[in-house]
Amino acid sequence: MVMNSSVTEFILFGLTQDAGKQKLIFAVFLMFYLATLLGNFLIVVTIKKSRTLGSPMYFFLFYLSFADACFSTTTAPRLIVDALSQKKTISYNECMTQVFAAHFFGCMEIFVLILMAFDRYVAICKPLRYTTIMSRQVCRVLVILSWVGSCIHSSAQLFLVLRLPFCGPNVIDHYFCDLQPLLKLACMDTYAINLLVVSNSGAICMVSFIILLISYIVILYSLRNHSAEGRRKALSTCTSHFIVVVLFFGPCIFIYTRPATTFPTDNMVAVFYTIGTPLLNPLIYTLRNVEVKNAMKKLWCS
Is residue 268 a part of any domain in this protein? Predict the structure, then answer.
């Protein structure tokens, strides 16, 4: 896979070089990662086994939890292992694989969040046509399109980074391989490539966030005609979704919609959307959702 590069491996700088803090990072992020896998696994199994969670909203939540678990897995294990490792190296091929996987599952999460917002829009604004518009077949097609779109996006990102020549140094000032840190190491003018990165990842983040924002404004406006109980239930569901959207898109927009400059806070911001958000999503969707909690209790009892 190595193209235009004399570098065969990279060194990941990580979050810190302090030995004491590295042990703390190992313990904390191992706990976070295991909790992320457990939380998302519980949601996936509960939705799969439960007969009461058959609506399109939970169909999309199933794929959001799957994407969360995979997205966290692309970065967290490497961070955890490197925290106790003396040799924090990653091969060129592994680095390129990580770039592809991180952008694939991150983009998948964005598309699924849009599908969930669309589902709520149809349920609240067009309730009489809901079962027709959001049929099981339509939901499957939408998820397939999300997979295809994510693959196109991540392939484009990988194509851009494969064109970069690396001739040293090879120390990545990050805890995983991503485009912005790799652009800094390339021995060529990366201005044009950075514009392509911003127009790809940055545009997806901004446009998706604007679409979601508009959809929730329309939903809130349409709720004025609903009963008090209907408004309460719809607001509870939409609030959960909107919290997830803000937590995920805020850090992504900060990272991917600016020129090729780095800030000291970039690594911690990246931790928030690659590890923090996949951990918080199961908590947000279970603690605020009575149906999911009841389904989990039934599954546990059985």
Answer: yes
What does the pLDDT look like over 63-100, one tens digit per residue?
A: 999 999 999 999 999 999 998 888 889 999 999 999 99
In a domain, 2, yes or no: no
Q: E strands, 28-122, where?
A: 89-91
Q: What is the domain extent for residue 44?
A: 9-301
Contact 140, 78 (CB under 8 A): no
Spell out the alpha helix ranges (H) of 16-55.
19-49
Instruction: Evaluate whether 170 touches 185 at the Cβ level (below 8 Å).
Output: yes
pLDDT tens readout for residues 117-149: 899 889 888 888 899 999 999 999 999 999 999
Is residue 261, in this structure, part of any structural domain at all? yes
Q: Kindly report the CATH number assigned to the domain that includes residue 113.
A: 1.20.1070.10
Q: Give one word for 14, left, alpha or beta, with left for phi > 0 and alpha for psi -120 to 50.
A: left
Kindly state the tokens that stand for 247: 């937590």
Continuous segment of H or E residues that includes residue 126 = none
Structural domains in the chain (count): 1
- Under a CB-based contact definition with an 8 Å cutoff, are residues 231 and 223 in contact? yes
Provide the token pair at 76. 């967290």
Give the sheet arrangement for strand 171-172, strand by strand.
89-91, 9-12, 171-172
